[in-house]
Amino acid sequence: MPTIARAAVLYGVNQPLQIQDIELDDPGAGEVLLKTSASGVCHSDLHFMEGKWMYPLPAVLGHESAGVVVQIGDGVTNVKVGDRCVIAFVQSCGKCDRCITGRPNLCSDTQSQQRMDRLKINGAPSMQFAGMSAFADHQLVSATACVHVPDAVPMEVAALVGCSVMTGVGAVTNTVKLQVGQTVAVVGCGGVGLNIIQGAALAGASRIIAVDMLENKLAAAREFGATDTVDASKGNAVEQVQAMTGGGVDYAFEAIGLMKTAQQCFEMARRGGQAVIVGMLPMAEQLTIPNAGISFLGEKGIIGSLYGSTRQAYDMPWLMELYRQKRLKIDELISRRYTLDEINVAYDALKGGEVNRSVIVFN
Known about the structure:
The protein contains ten helices and 18 strands. 51% of the residues are buried. By secondary structure, it is an alpha/beta fold. The strands form three sheets. Strands 3, 5, 6, 9, 10, 17 and 18 form a seven-stranded mixed beta sheet that branches. Strands 13-12-11-14-15-16 form a six-stranded parallel beta sheet, with helices on both faces. The protein has helices spanning 43-49, 97-100, 155-175, 191-203, 215-223, 237-245, 259-268, 292-297, 312-324, 343-351, and strands at 3-10, 18-24, 31-41, 59-60, 65-72, 84-87, 119-121, 124-126, 138-142, 146-148, 183-187, 207-212, 228-231, 249-254, 269-277, 301-304, 334-338, 357-361. It has two domains: 3-163 and 309-361, Medium-chain alcohol dehydrogenases, catalytic domain (Quinone Oxidoreductase, Chain A, domain 1, Alpha-Beta Complex), CATH 3.90.180.10; 177-304, Rossmann fold (3-Layer(aba) Sandwich), CATH 3.40.50. The radius of gyration is 20 Å and the shape is globular. The model has no long low-confidence stretch (mean pLDDT 93).
């Protein structure tokens, strides 16, 4: 018997999300049905809503969530009905060369993990966004995407571990493996940027320079561990970072998803340093590397970071443990809570730069 779920549906680019019922199939082999507890309002979904990235429409977006298992399919042994879980949005097969060498976020066979016709909108099959479609009060997901949430961790906190915390902290600890004493610049101090900042603080960075154009974002950056701030609305941000550091930082993290800021990050990196692209750069644009010949002779580099290079079954539990020990700020990350019916209001607040992170809370 299909599950009727309440969801926010995107019908067209730059159109408001519409709240309506959808259908989810019963879980098959290796699948789990969850009742959603909380879903984060992430900028990555906004890229699809604004057409900067493309996805078949209509669709139910959402990829940062936690929920309670209500039904399991054949062969599922890692979770049971009643378990509280955070859900990883990168699907992995567990068998390819990337998976078995500890890089499941780069799974070579991730497309085979996507359920193409298990969700129906107005009776027509629809792809599940990120294998989840988390802007709904129920989700059908792969069992391998489920990670247990300890009793001491609130579900809205666990939801943010599912994307912004994992993506930001993981970019520091997994992707570049920051060493004690190294220097960092973070361009963009939203939910992911703040987690890059606190990840760098946890890793022992000697200097963490936060760059943004909004004072409320820079104030939040200082709360999360930034040692210095640069207001990019006042003067050249690259020149300011270079002047503060005597030539640039070891790692400059781009956490917005703009070509301009990606280029700035490359320029902020010192000789032998790296620009780390964490944000989702627009698909239709190209990145220009300034003074490429001289820069590469100086061993400067540029690297991408997908989902904090996560190994979800290993990384997410220790992130939640750091939260339990009060060594990781996640409660402070949540600026506002909304109901599903208020999701368009939540995205207006995000676009206006009013929040660190908002969460859709389900009853």
